[in-house]
Structure formats: structure tokens, C-alpha cells
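Here is a complete protein record:
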Amino acid sequence: MPKAPADVRLARLLDIVPWIAAHDGPKVEEVCRRFDISEQELLSELNLLFLCGLYPFTPDVLIDVDVADGRVWVSMADYFRRPLRLSPQEGMALASAASALLDVPGADRDGALARALAKLETVLGVGADDGLDVELGHAPAGVLEELRHAAASRRRVRIDYYSFGRDGHSTRVVHPWRVFNAAGNWYVQGWCESVEGERIFRADRITASEPMQDTFEPPPALGEVDAAVYHPRPEDEVVVLDLDPPAHWIAEQYPNVDVTQLPGGTLRVTLGVAGRAWLERLLLRGGPNVRVVEGTGEVAPAAAKRVLARYRR
């Protein structure tokens, strides 16, 4: 049986270790049953802990595992007994993530996470008058909740959608596989009947939704959501842009095929483009710090000429 991907194994190990440590020598078969793994997989994962520690890798900073008589013990290193000290930047990042989670529909505003966030904000010196506010991309009232319910009940949904890349509106029937958040925005991943293919829609660009009575069967395995969200399709045009330092954010923010460092601090980035309207907006945002070098189709030269004409006016 092939091993699970490294990220899945790491997440599982991060769950297993504190659970074993908290239960003081549980039976191996109990651990395997709880985490749905075989004894061989469990021992293989725990063997990795012998390699975990901090410099200078003395016994007090290493995790110890003991398996005997069908039981397993995990002794945490002294390092883990000391309170974790976060830098101000790490504290604010943690507070931002917690605040974003509390903004998820259905979150308990008075639960353990809210109480922990209140304590963290006190330590950070964030008071009620200057509280931390994290806003995720908003969908029209009720739309996000309808989409989440449709995904849970496997019902098809008719949506009115604005395509940012093509600057146009359309009505589509989609099978919402799941609703998720990435990079501060809500997204719907599913099957679009209009294009007969998988698509990801920004929820705040869905202007209306209408749940239907028909149901659908989701794919057997959805896999993990890619944080990049957007991936160029084979039919998308590929463009090459030169970015001066003030526009380097384009290479960092958008998925690309290649980035090359040129003399003078310029970056040459190759990326896929979904439509002319999207590229025009990108060129306007970048201003004179972005130059179109070449493109595989008509989108790049047309967008560059149109934006340049606006500057000349």
C-alpha cells in the first residue's frame, strides 16, 4: 500500500503525538483504531520523532518514544514544557487567522476560540476601541449560506456570475462540491454544466443563487484545495511581462510559469491569462512598471495597445 503524501502524514502525526502524550501509555491497537492506520504505519510515523529536536540536539530537546507490551508512550521534550513566546508579528498573524475563522458562518462567537482570541488581543495590546478586524470577501446576503447548504445537501444551484477575467455576466448551473476560503476570499468549487468542466467561482462575484431540487454525485475524492486557487487552462494565452521593482508583487501574487531575474532588478515573468479584461486591469495597476514583452495569441498585444492608448489620451 503506497504511503500517504508527506503533508497528510505530517498533519496526522501532529494529531497523534499530543493524543498519546495526554493518555499516558495507550494501547497500540487503540491508537491505530482512533486514527485509522495500521500498526506498521504508526510505528513508521513514530520513528520519525527520534529525528525531531532543536540544536544542539541534546536529550532535553528531543522527543522520546517507548513501545512495550503493546503500549506506547511519548515523552515530550523540555522545550515543549516552556510557554511558547510569539513575536509581535507572529501574534498578529495568529490573531488575524482566529478572527477570520470567527467570521465563518456558523462559528461560535462565544466559544473557546473567541475567548482565546480575546486573551491574545489583550496581550498584544489590541483594545476594544482599536480591535482587529478581518473581513473576508463578501457574497450577497444569504448567498454564501445557500451555497454551503447546497454543497452539504448535494443540490444543483443556478447562479448569476460575473467573470472578472472576461468582464461579463452569465447564468450557470453548477454542482457545488465544496465552499472554502483562501487568500481572504470565499470560493465555490464544483462542476459547471455550461462549460462541462470543473470550475472555481469567487463567491462575492455571485450576484444571485437559486437552489434546485435536483441532486448530484460529487467526485469520489476531491483532494486538497490549492492555495493558489487559479490555474491556467491549456487554452489560456501565455504572456511574458517585464516587471520593475515596484511591480514585483505581480510575480508573488499570481501563479506563473517562470520568473527570471534581469539586470537592474527587473523580473521577467511568464504567466497564463484568462482574458483580455483581466490583463488590461493588471497593466493599469502596474502602470509604467509593467511592460508586455510577448504573448502566444492576440490578447497581450491588444491589451497593451488599448491601455497605451488610454495613457496617450
Q: What stands out?
A: The chain has ten helices and eleven strands.
